[in-house]
Amino acid sequence: MSEERLIIVEGGSDRKRLRRILAESVEIICTNGTVSPYRLEELLMPYEGWHLFVFLDADASGEKIRALFKREFPTAVHLYTEKVYKEVETTPYEVLATILLGADFKVRPEFLH
């Protein structure tokens, strides 16, 4: 796939976890918690024209940020962890790999069972 893709996560632990699973070079940036529309625009300015993927926690904070993304960047693709795991950081690697594979990312085979 030739178009550049960006995954947005909440924190560094989420980013580290996804990087371990991905079998391709994908830019991953962190919101580091709650963001405003201005901060979000500033954060994403260098990635204008990229295909955005939003992968946030299944909790109140994650849903608040997700709602902001839906409003400000309606073309972004939203990836969801299962509510039982609540956070990307605590979601098992195999589950994350399946979610990423479903979004057409290349994942390391050892994480697919």
What does this structure look like?
It is a single chain. Helix content is 36%, strand content 17%. The protein has a 4-stranded parallel beta sheet with strand order 2-1-3-4, sandwiched between helices. The mean pLDDT is 92. With 113 residues, it is of the alpha/beta class. It starts with a strand and ends in an 11-residue tail after the last helix. Residues 4-92 form the Toprim domain. One of its GO terms (molecular function) is ribonuclease M5 activity.
What is the structure about, briefly put?
The protein has helices spanning 12-21, 37-44, 60-72, 93-102; strands at residues 5-9, 27-30, 51-56, 77-80. With 113 residues, the protein is α/β, with parallel strands linked by helices.
Count of helices?
4
The Rg value, from CA coordinates, equals 13 Å
Biggest sheet strand order reads 2-1-3-4
Task: State the shape.
Answer: globular
What name is given to the CATH topology?
A: Dna Topoisomerase Vi A Subunit, Chain: A, domain 2
Strand content: 15-25%
CATH domain class name: Alpha Beta
The percent of residues in helical segments reads: 25-40%
